[in-house]
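Hi everyone, sorry if this is the wrong subforum. Our group has a chain we'd like a structural model of before ordering constructs, and none of us has done structure prediction before. Sequence below.
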Amino acid sequence: MLQGEYHAALLAEPVMSKVMDSKETKIIYDIQSLYKEVTGYDTYPQAAIFVSNKALSTKLEAIIEVINKIDSSIASFNEDPIDLQLLSDKVDFKGLGFDDVVLLSEAYERIALDFVSGNECVDEVRHFLELFDIEYRDTMYVK
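Answer:
Right subforum, don't worry. Here is the predicted structure as tokens:
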């Protein structure tokens, strides 16, 4: 799209904001809104933290500490996305393709990032997997 080779694309945030900032574009469909309209669920799972059973039994405290840090960081950014700018001295945003961390913080609201424990979203995950004919079993997550 940036080179003008394509006139439409399915993009996720924050890449979408980068393209919109560089080129005259508009959002035609918001997949998140369409998903809610069709399924009734506010969102769909896009990422997960996977931990081996061995690590759970040998490094549980460290895993819980990392998960708590991720959860509190997401909560902080959701409260004030400008906090992302404070990370610019610790994170190589340019290496991630974002020369301007301000653009990233402005796009953050549309990223719709939220931390949800696996046992709090069982129905959402089950429904999402069924869309791809993947059988969901209760042994697929730690309760």
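For your construct planning: The longest helix spans residues 60-79. The chain has a mean pLDDT of 83.
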